[in-house]
Amino acid sequence: MWQIIQWTFWYGLVSFLFVSKTYALELVGVLMVYPVLYFYNGERGKAKWMKWFFYLYYPTHLILLGILRVMIYGDINLTV
After folding, report:
1. Can you tell me whether residue 4 is helix, strand or coil?
2. Has this prediction a pTM greater than 0.70?
3. Among 6, 16, 35, 79, which residue's Cβ finds the most Cβ atoms within 10 Å?
């Protein structure tokens, strides 16, 4: 697993320096997931409220990102 993290780090560093800073910052999210998965013990969580939190969070964040897109770029035609 540590090899994957190491290669992803180097790939992100080269991308940051020579390709795209935005893409390299997205790779930080990839690296942040590995410690969480490493400590997962295979058991379900005990917090029942998390299910309802994510039921609300998922559509809410998509709506906010859509509003932000329209605010930044204006009304973009999505058809080809």
Report:
1. helix
2. no
3. 16
Contact 68, 61 (CB under 8 A): no
Exposure string of 9-20, with b = 16+ CB inside 10 Å and e = fewer, is eeebeebbeeee
> Do the beta carbons of residue 1 and residue 38 sit within 8 Å?
yes
Phi-psi region of 79 (alpha: psi -120 to 50; beta: other; left: phi over 0): beta
Q: Indicate the SS3 state at residue 40.
A: coil
pLDDT in tens, 45-58: 888 888 899 999 99
Cα dist from 15 to 1, 21, 32, 76, whole Å:
21, 7, 17, 29
Angle formed by the axes of helices 21-38 and 2-14, to 10°?
Answer: 170
> What is the number of alpha carbons within 13 Å of residue 62 lying toward its C-beta?
5
